[in-house]
Amino acid sequence: xxxxxxxxxxxxxxxxxxxxxxxxxxxxxxxxxxxxxxxxxxxxxxxxxxxxxxxxxxxxxxxxxxxxxxxxxxxxxxxxxxxxxxxxxxxxxxxxxxxxxxxxxxxxxxxxxxxxxxxxxxxxxxxxxxxxxxxxxxxxxxxxxxxxxxxxxxxxxxxxxxxxxxxxxxxxxxxxxxxxxxxxxxxxxxxxxxxxxxxxxxxxxxxxxxxxxxxxxxxxxxxxxxxxxxxxxxxxxxxxxxxxxxxxxxxxxxxxxxxxxxxxxxxxxxxxxxxxxxxxxxxxxxxxxxxxxxxxx
Amino acid sequence: xxxxxxxxxxxxxxxxxxxxxxxxxxxxxxxxxxxxxxxxxxxxxxxxxxxxxxxxxxxxxxxxxxxxxxxxxxxxxxxxxxxxxxxxxxxxxxxxxxxxxxxxxxxxxxxxxxxxxxxxxxxxxxxxxxxxxxxxxxxxxxxxxxxxxxxxxxxxxxxxxxxxxxxxxxxxxxxxxxxxxxxxxxxxxxxxxxxxxxxxxxxxxxxxxxxxxxxxxxxxxxxxxxxxxxxxxxxxxxxxxxxxxxxxxxxxxxxxxxxxxxxxxxxxxxxxxxxxxxxxxxxxxxxxx
Lengths: 297, 289
Prior knowledge:
Oligomer: heterodimer
GO molecular function, one term (chain A): lipid binding
Subcellular location (chain A): Mitochondrion
Region (Disordered) (chain A): 43-81
Protein name (chain A): Ubiquinone biosynthesis protein
InterPro entries (chain A): COQ9_C, Ubiq_biosynth_COQ9
Helix content of chain A: over 70%
Order of helices and strands of chain A: HHHEHHHHHHHHH
Structural class of chain B: alpha/beta
Largest interface: A-B, 53 and 53 residues
């Protein structure tokens, strides 16, 4: 589900340019909050567009040439919007460099804006401030992970549970530079206003990992698998916070252990299922035999 | 979504011949419900503010039941001021918004910012208060002294016209105009001046009395503005006409959506607005790139 959304956003920006304003702008923005930013007018009061009154007039005078001019105007506007989004991303990228020292704070964002020569006023243009910085980082990491999935060939040669462990490890390694400030990021993500976005980003991440393992499940299994992997990812993430072993060796051992447990668990469920099936089959045939013998008499 | 798209398309088709700017650009302009020649509006508005200057803040408190303080707080919190900021507050003669911005920069919340950057940053903070009316500026200067900000080098009082600002291109971090844009003759000129003086990444914020949508509340609001406000004006300030002008000019001001489109036509990005008290006031914001 999220995969398809992500795909559309990433690979077919053109479709979205036609379908709606929200997704114009930088095609790689994944979080809904970020894409909302590029809306031309987003009013808190959700009022309908005022232009509706001018519709009859317009339909009367819509000729080919105005249509073309209109398209050109639209193009310019969406270009400007894309540029605006790009600038914002540039500020956020620069802010990330200050995070290890200043934390996930407004201060880091102001410092980042100064670095790229943009007025720090722009920080006021991010309604949720530091939460958007964290979300930007999560998006960046997801893109990096997807690039790695596409480029690394040896991933495909691994057996599924090793592949999953490896992918989770790659993703977690991306936040190593920020590990001292990561608890702060987690607390920001856990704030009620930010929960919907952080939950979506995590769901997207887990989904991406499952897809990298060629998982095509579409039944109840889909939810079970994602819940379990989400659990593994989050516990490893938290384990990592207090891990002081060199190169986070303990975290990776912990991660491998949990992935193995999950696959074992799946196996035992399957075994139980088979057992139940064979028992019911066995009982069924004997009942049938009994009925048959009764009927014959 | 589809409906909005259609509406957008139609609007864009109309743009060459039927811009909102065109409508506001007539040679006769509105002064409240009266049509007056363009040249006269600024003089008439000047008269209004000269006559209300001394009672301006008292009247604001009475008319809005103190709510205007909250609205201004909201404006400043949306602006998100920072130490070292160059800010321009237009039509802010009595300094209400400027004092709040200064307080916010000096507050404890920004201690971390101050510690991080060089110490001289605090001194670099400059808040320019620009007003076309010297009487309003005088009220502001006196209030600054009462608050002990008279010697503060951060506050700079400038007499100037919002339609022709005396500032360099790209020299300002933030631009606010609170309850002022309604009184200017050419809104689009003010907006393009704001765009000109702002730095890249700078923000434009406008707090303005706007239009109420909810019909039931609108009934009450209309009664209040046309019957109660001029009466208060007469009782307290002894000037009914100025307050009659005030409520009429609110009705003449473009709706939230239309004003937002004017702002984006001036070149601003990420134009948004927020209604407060059901649209009695609205805060519009835009970002320059």
